[in-house]
């Protein structure tokens, strides 16, 4: 396995040795390899996550399609779904050949499909199972093994349920805890509603960090801006943005400066256009479609002059038979970029 010192964006002494950590949350149907490639072109250091991949799928399914990623994506974490320690350990062993920087266990997704497999957020109800899973994964992993959880589910009292889970998984060897600062309601709310209706409780996440000052505690849920992310870092070690980063990926352009001490520079949107065109051309040459790449780029310039036309071009033209990288060039050419007032020349 490649040493972390040889990977871009990964500290030589470990992924969580440097604080703070800024991450883009794992999101089903969104954070696939094409999305992550786009995000990496905008931020060199943000920690990127895969969609949740079920352990059974890795064991029995098309591994290269499920686990393959571009070498430029580092640092990149694989999120696993499952509740069987042996199967999760086998999935971690298989994933070892794909050179991820972290393995994360999903203990937060509330969807019916995940519940039917008795994993995701419903694992909050059986913290001993989560601990067994983490212990089994740690035995076969050469990289950090982490947990992403909610503060509780259904009628659980978060003040009891959350520290119980944290205690157990840390004892089992977990390297970091990412906490979505909402409960999940397993019955009666859709996954979308579970991201919006249960009230946010950032203070309980702060209290967990106070209780475990020497452990990595990161926060997720409802964070919309880098200013909000910066404010959270007065209390925790890491911040994770989800929909806000996906729906307007341009927000990632200031991450390296704000959180990793890189010099402040103007984003090179022309260069991004060229890189995404080249990436799309490679994808199409291997049998893919432009839309696989372009769909993640639609929200990139939300709020900028010309962004409406940009969205129209990517949403419509990228879906046409035979669409090629020139569609990306046409979309970028529609945008007036703040501070320059010049159109990107394709």
UniProtKB/TrEMBL annotation:
Belongs to the Dus family. DusA subfamily. The keyword S-adenosyl-L-methionine does not apply. The keyword Acetylation does not apply. The record marks 106, 192, 195, 308, 311 as: Interacts with tRNA. It holds the Pfam family Dus. It is an enzyme of class 1 (oxidoreductase). The active site is at residue 109. Residues 24-322 form the DUS-like FMN-binding domain. Catalyzes the synthesis of 5,6-dihydrouridine (D), a modified base found in the D-loop of most tRNAs, via the reduction of the C5-C6 double bond in target uridines. Specifically modifies U20 and U20a in tRNAs. GO terms for molecular function: tRNA-dihydrouridine20 synthase activity. FMN binds at residues 79, 148, 180, 220-222, 242-243. It comes from Rhizobium calliandrae. This is tRNA-dihydrouridine(20/20a) synthase. Its cofactor is FMN. InterPro entries: Aldolase_TIM, DUS-like_FMN-bd, DUS_fam, DusA, tRNA_hU_synthase_CS. Its EC number is 1.3.1.91. HAMAP family: DusA_subfam. Keywords: Flavoprotein, FMN, NADP, Oxidoreductase, RNA-binding, tRNA processing, tRNA-binding. It catalyses: 5,6-dihydrouridine(20a) in tRNA + NAD(+) = uridine(20a) in tRNA + NADH + H(+); 5,6-dihydrouridine(20) in tRNA + NAD(+) = uridine(20) in tRNA + NADH + H(+); 5,6-dihydrouridine(20a) in tRNA + NADP(+) = uridine(20a) in tRNA + NADPH + H(+); 5,6-dihydrouridine(20) in tRNA + NADP(+) = uridine(20) in tRNA + NADPH + H(+). CDD domains: DUS_like_FMN.
